[in-house]
Write a structure and sequence with these properties.
Helix content: 25-40%
CATH architecture: 3-Layer(aba) Sandwich
Order of helices and strands: HEEEEHEEHEHEHEH
CATH topology: Rossmann fold
Bound molecules: hypoxanthine
Shape: globular
Number of strands: 9
Largest sheet: 5 strands, mixed, barrel
CATH class: Alpha Beta
Number of domains: 1
Strand order of the largest sheet: 5-8-7-6-9
Structural class: alpha/beta
């Protein structure tokens, strides 16, 4: 795996002229951030050696290099989900590569179902911790000491300093933000009412199908992480209704402006 990471990073370095300081995974709700990036280079995933290629959405993703809020960034437009059939190493491979490209921080977004009764549809939630409820962990297998320790610390999976800054940015722009624990599980089914109840009892505020593997791998390599979620539906007793992918996309599109603004302004504060 190490050879693959290195050769992929070397290939990408031959195509770019600036070194990214910050990696961004443009999950649900951050698609619009691309318009704010002063783009210097774009590399489609299918041109990148060893990169998994997205299959589900019909079009593959790309790596975008450019400047955002005065910082050099690399943004993943399109991420790899475990439910698509990729293994944990494939899901997290781009994070490994971004580390070798020089990123010093990782920003992530996603959509999730809220199980905290104080949450409303369309809320933004700063993720302050997670519960790995995926059936696996991307670090299972031989540990590569060059990447990180066998037993990585997870006491601050989501960087406290960045969270403080993000809350200040949100307040300064009159944007309401929630804060809470994200529980990640495989999907692709949305949760049954009993499963939402379980998620709440387990101590989470929201549930989704991404982010946890990428953050585990980033923390393995000691990269500080920041993640935000859009609460697109509620798994709260009495408020549970049918959920479709379209509903999730629709709510996310409405909340996108707020999330984009926070992320862009936050870049300037780092
Ligand atoms: N459950 C899991 N993933 C999700 C949800 C949900 O309710 N909403 C958006 N992504």
């Amino acid at each position: 795996m190490l050879d693959q990471i290195k050769s992929t990073a070397t290939y990408i370095q031959s195509k770019i002229t600036t070194q990214p300081e910050i990696g961004i995974i443009l999950g649900t709700g951050l698609g619009g951030l691309v318009k704010e990036i002063n783009i210097k280079h774009t590399i489609p995933y299918e041109e990148i050696p060893n990169f998994p290629v997205s299959t589900v959405e019909g079009h593959s993703g790309k790596l975008i290099f450019g400047e955002l809020g005065g910082k050099n960034v690399v943004a993943m437009q399109g991420r790899f989900h475990y439910y698509e059939g990729y293994n944990m190493q494939q899901v997290t491979f781009p994070v490994r590569v971004m580390k070798f490209l020089g990123i010093q921080k990782l920003f992530v977004s996603n959509a999730s179902g809220g199980v905290n009764p104080n949450f409303e549809i369309g809320d933004l939630m700063i993720i302050n911790d997670h519960i790995n409820f995926f059936p696996s962990n991307p670090l299972i297998g031989k540990n590569l000491a060059e990447l990180g320790p066998r037993f990585p610390d997870m006491s601050e999976a989501y960087n406290k300093e960045i969270i403080v800054k993000a809350k200040k940015v949100a307040a300064a722009n009159n944007i309401k933000v929630q804060e809470g624990v994200y529980l990640g599980l495989s999907g692709p089914t949305f949760e049954t009412p009993a499963e939402y109840r379980m998620v709440k009892i387990l101590g989470a505020d929201a549930v989704g199908m991404s982010t946890v593997p990428e953050v585990i791998v980033a923390r393995h390599m000691n990269i500080p992480c920041f993640a935000m979620s859009i609460i697109t539906d509620l798994g709260v007793e009495g408020k549970i209704v049918e959920v479709t992918h379209e509903d999730v996309q629709h709510v996310a599109a409405q909340a996108e402006k707020k999330m984009t603004l926070i992320m862009k302004e936050l870049m300037k504060e780092l």
